[in-house]
Amino acid sequence: MRNSTIRAVNRLATRWAMQAPAGDAGTVHAAAGVWPLLALLADGAAGPARDELAQSLGLPARAAAGAARELLAALADVRGLQTATGLWTRAEVPLDDVWSAKLPAGARGTLTGVPDADGKVLDTWAAERTGGLIEHVPVSWPEDTRLVLASALALRVRWAAPFKEAKEAKEAKKVNRTNEAKGPNGASAVEAEGPWAGRALRRLSRTTSSLDDVRVAGGPAGAVTVLEVAGTEDVDVHLLLGGERTPPREVLATGLAVVTGDAPSVAGNALPDGTPGPGLAIRTVVTYVPGDLLSVSTVAFALRTEHDLLDHAPLFGLESATDETSAHFPGISSEPLAIGSAQQAATARFHAAGFEAAAVTAVLARPGTGAPPRGKHRVRRAEVRIDRPFGFLAVHRASRLVLAAGWVTEPETTAPEG
Fold it and tell me: N or C: which end of the chain has fewer CB within 10 A?
């Protein structure tokens, strides 16, 4: 993958993260699923629509289709990641041969003009390409739909060091009644305090030997703790915890800057004893067991979100392209076309054994009119505890391309509440 393309996709991911809800809503989105579609549209666009798409992409429109092809080809080689593209058109819509030749390999189909029938075909495609993680293509279906361009992305990661799940909820509730304080490795499934107090959560814990898996960065709104959870494939997941009053968008933006190398951070081994970051405590101890340890306590989560990209049309360069009084894509078809719908369905699940994420993005066009030796050792112990809303990023290790980003407000529970 070219560095210029990676930076362009990550910039879009950062701008999208800055739209994160400020309230109680969790979210997940994948700029890597949107960017190639915008690039293919930019290649066939003209006038203001072409200029706006190029600005959103961060690349000249003339280079966009080639960059999209290279990106998708490179993503196909990422272990744990599956990608696909598809194009469906009405039979009477003539496609430009030059534009069609630049499309990545993928599904090609014909729209019947019957919304229910066309929807079933695309839903089947989405389910097959994401392994059932997403079973619905998020498009509106006006009967005058002329073209649908879609992408699918499915990521499955296994942890190099799996987590352990806390005790069952009933057992944890008994422990909680005694008000016994528990550390990260003995955390009960019922939260004792904080915004999730009294809830039976699927709490996950593990202990590893590298303090450098946790880092602290100084963001515009305060420090952010960044915890890397390494996968056995080519992708790692980074958990982001900011201050209690730090807005989600600020936490995500700081985390994105850290994982992409655009902002400095301090690794755990170089951090001082005390509480150098949110949810992070470090101390130096004398023990018979050599080696530093990093203990982590977090929560399992599962998110499903649908995004209407036209709600943020300027962000995605789609403002002018929705004007049905003009022909915006003469490089795609001689028939006047305008964007009628642009949406993404995304899902993410973090659990003891690994992480899954998927996104299906679809853009619809409609007619336009125009065991060591024993002895005493001085070692360091770090503990990370995530017990309130936090962010996450799934990142391709080699390129630093951000594949998915999101914000967690509602962890998974172990039993019905109440």
Answer: C
